[in-house]
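Q: My labmate handed me this sequence with no annotations at all. I'd like to see what the chain might look like in three dimensions before we decide whether it's worth expressing. Could you predict it?
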Amino acid sequence: MAVASRTAVPSAGTTKGDLLALHRHYAATGDPETRRALIEAHSGLAQALARRIGSRGADSVDDMVQVAYLALMKAVDRFDPDLGYQFSTYATRVITGELKRHLRDYSWSVRPPRAIHDLYLAAESAADDLTQELRRNPTVAEVAERLGVDEESVLEAGEAGFWRRTPSLDRPSATGDTDVGDIVGAPDDGFARLEGRLLLEALLPKLDDQARRILDMRFNDRLSQAEIASRLGTSQMNVSRTLRRTLDRLLAAADGR
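A: Here is what I predict for the chain of 257 residues:
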């Protein structure tokens, strides 16, 4: 297959020899159109691996496909057609590694130690293989034997895998008449406000009448300092100083309790 200056996307009838010629051309020239053609020719492989491996994780299929495509680009760039093995074999290894690394590093809501990450993924893979071989779901003992670890380690990895994604607060509660989020407790700043109010009530009697009136007009009536000065027949500067002095006194008393 002759490679033109603007490489056409391979058709359904493109042979392995045609693709090998494209790989050789790209390795020699770095032509971006050839690179694009190779990526599109193997896009089905990337999508299939993303769906198969992504089904074990918490990320959306679209996210996994994007990771697979990035890995495919890396495989196209690094592939050496003169080494004698097929690109699909090499790309499968590269894409699978990137997908598993993504699941290991980014898709966990609660991050267990790396060893448990790796064991969980290995246990998932071993369980898939054993299911095909045994034509039934394998037991924990069988998975542990396949991996050469004890059953307790497999159970621990499975427990960690349960927390790959935290459950949604929008899911129905056990009673079914409300969502979980509606019954989960939340911080209530009402207690802090109540404590502050009680403290203020204890401190206010220690202030003179004018200071209490200025505080009342400023924080209850929401008057500006100019409006307060007008009502009291004093200067705005005097109101500002009184406010600052009074607040400093209240803060000092609150700190001392």
